[in-house]
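A further point concerns the way the authors explain their paired sequence and structure data. Since the whole study asks how a given chain folds, the encoding of that fold should be made plain. A single example would do more here than another paragraph of explanation. An entry of this sort, consisting of the sequence and the corresponding backbone structure tokens, reads as follows:

_____
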Amino acid sequence: MEIFVVGGAVRDALMGQPVNDRDWVVVGATPEAMTAKGYVPVGKDFPVFLHPQSREEYALARTERKTARGYKGFAVQAAPDVTLEEDLARRDLTINALAVPESMAGQLSAAASARPEPVDGLSNWTTHIIDPYGGQGDLQAKVLRHVTHAFAEDPVRILRLARFAARFPDFRVADETMALMRQMVLDGEVDHLVPERVWQEIARGLMADKPSRMFEVLRACGALKVLLPELDRLWGVPQRPEHHPEIDTGVHVMMVLDQCARLQAPLAVRWAALMHDLGKGTTPTDVLPRHIGHESRSVKLAHKVAERLRVPNDCKELAEVVAREHGNIHRSGELSAAAIMRLLIRCDAIRQHERFALVLQACEADARGRLGCEETAYPQARRLARALESALSVVTADIAAAAAHEGLQGAQIGERIEAARVTAITRQLQAF
């Protein structure tokens, strides 16, 4: 029995990045031998075991063979005669097909934290790297390359590669890998991806340092047109240059997405940014570059996409609010206190004030996601945040009690409370 650390831990150590998780592969063992040593079986589709002390997952070396389309369409063979090289061959990218013996596992985190300074005892750890597919060379050349043609057997790997492109934006996709992905799209492989897997990979790519790269790669291979046609159609759609010097709507959305990363926005904000202008892709050509009413069309399309990909409710709901109200929020400097109150009500900001802060963050990214506007201030966010604070400062219980004492009921009490909030916002705006 031999044990190895494989994949991302080795890659990240070589790149000088933190090693947070380790994937373990066991060669030359049987399930019975693992349980005899105290490992606890947890795998459903293939043999995976928990270490008796660390509780880390250890997988038996295995091969995979495609038997049908879909996530479950793989025959897995985990046997003592499966070699480490065979196990690494089923991995997606050469930079993830690296391994080191168990004896070197403790060196990984230390090596990563030591870079670029040499540390005694770590200088030779790289000599123990097992690299049958040239991953170290591709790391140095900054290339994302598939390991073997088995890459084509799982279309999820297209999404994974695109996600890695977003994580490592200075890496290029190998020409032969891009050609393979295009062929996979033409062969209809992407049509059969499970929605949950699509969302899982997109969500991880959205949280990368440069999320636009994910969609750049998906668009380049044709997968975006299959997975998110509502987004793909935005490229080539013009906008008014006085508002959008970048002109192209698809380019604008990608700029907004990268602004979200710059603002370190959470996933829900990044998803809202991706969805906020979908309606511009359905604007009649005879009215371009104007996009009258695109907000309501964007809401419907964002809802459709969220249902199809089974997007979590917090992301889905935020995207719909941002799609509907981002134009009004951009113009909020011109609104009266009463109009601002109506905006807060439409955003459900009184009840969900924390979510409203995310709405404002998405709108700030939208405003900055334009050519030449990357450093532009966004006072609308501060103004509306203070307006909401003023509205929330109104003691509604006292107003309701006084109104009830006057014989008012239901909607009448609500009108009295809203009027008090408008008064509070008016005072705030005067002091702003």
Observations:
- The mean pLDDT is 91.
